[in-house]
Amino acid sequence: xxxxxxxxxxxxxxxxxxxxxxxxxxxxxxxxIDIQVELSEENLKVARQKGLVEKFRLTRHISIKNMHLHDxxxxxxxxxxxxxxxxxxxxxxxxxxxxxxxxKKTKLELENEILDxxxxxITLVGKKRLISQGRDQKYNH
Length: 141
Prior knowledge:
4 helices, ATP-binding, ATP binding, mainly alpha, DNA topoisomerase (ATP-hydrolyzing), 2 domains, 4 strands, nucleotide-binding, Topo_IIA-like_dom_sf
């Protein structure tokens, strides 16, 4: 993010490439992916013609020529493309996704039970079938 802000700072300089600034101002709105950029109509037309993604360097190329990973047996293996990695690890990772899903389901069921009990409590107090005010503290626990 710091590198990209440095790039935005560079293209907002008055003498950028001898032509003047591309953007008038930019504002980081608090996180890594929310930046507001202000530019003139003329510069917007030029940027659209060249392509906004390329003009503002919104993509980055990553080399996939040297992909060495540990396989499921812990042995270092060279992969030629990302699809090979997915095929290799799909079967190994699938049971862990099921375990994670089961834990998440259990957690949500517990939260649901707690919320149901809160609703039941509020309903009973609202219908005056359960009186919790004015009781001695030792009975409120």
